[in-house]
Amino acid sequence: xxxxxxxxxxxxxxxxxxxxxxxxxxxxxxxxxxxxxxxxxxxxxxxxxxxxxxxxxxxxxxxxxxxxxxxxxxxxxxxxxxxxxxxxxxxxxxxxxxxxxxxxxxxxxxxxxxxxxxxxxxxxxxxxxxxxxxxxxxxxxxxxxxxxxxxxxxxxxxxxxxxxxxxxxxxxxxxxxxxxxxxxxxxxxxxxxxxxxxxxxxxxxxxxxxxxxxxxxxxxxxxxxxxxxxxxxxxxxxxxxxxxxxxxxxxxxxxxxxxxxxxxxxxxxxxxxxxxxxxxxxxxxxxxxxxxxxxxxxxxxxxxxxxxxxxxxxxxxxxxx
Length: 321
Prior knowledge:
By secondary structure, the chain is mainly alpha-helical. The chain is built from 14 helices and no strands. The chain has one domain (24-299).
């Protein structure tokens, strides 16, 4: 590791540590409020939240599998799920490219060219990001008495610009090929229409809704369902998720997501209370992700790089939707 990379790693680690420190300080300084809060734990709602989060995580690789299908390659759901979750372990390393690189590496072992797999992962992230614009709209509709900080408004032109540019897949293809050329890789042809891009965006919106509603049930298991609006909670969760994702200096957006949620719920639930609940939700979803990783690790033949599925253009038996 070069001195430059070492310095970057130190700075990113320090930034993450600072965020966690300030969140911890917020919890400790409001400990009396937290102790005096009317906690109302509901084990039935907690169990429902666990089931819904698991379903949401199970749905994500299915959508990525559809992206691959539209690009001309097919995987079984089991293989797509395993590649998705083993590859995505890379997102806990500072810098967001590692999850894409991990997915590309794992996909190549199942007969999908690494460039295609990496491109599909980028495509999926771009259109997942575009789908989150719908949650910004929901947030503004259901935010109630919450007064939005002007600093959040910079997301609006970013979303609009991204939507206008990338809803046409040819534009995304041009950008990807410029990057691939710079790193010495062959160009790719997405072969995806605008109609298909809209389908994928809608699927990612549905995925976000599953995660958001899971979080609503999770929070309700601590504070009661009557305390928070489901659409506000779902949209706030997705906004906080993307804030953490876009914080490139923090592995896995640790601390950023929790801090943003504490801010968004400021006038509804005490910040310290919400930070604790958000941290517990992260623990839960991390355990669910690890469960999928363990399932992948124990699949016979997968960890040995066995090619399980042939590309669609070799089989010629599938009809593209």
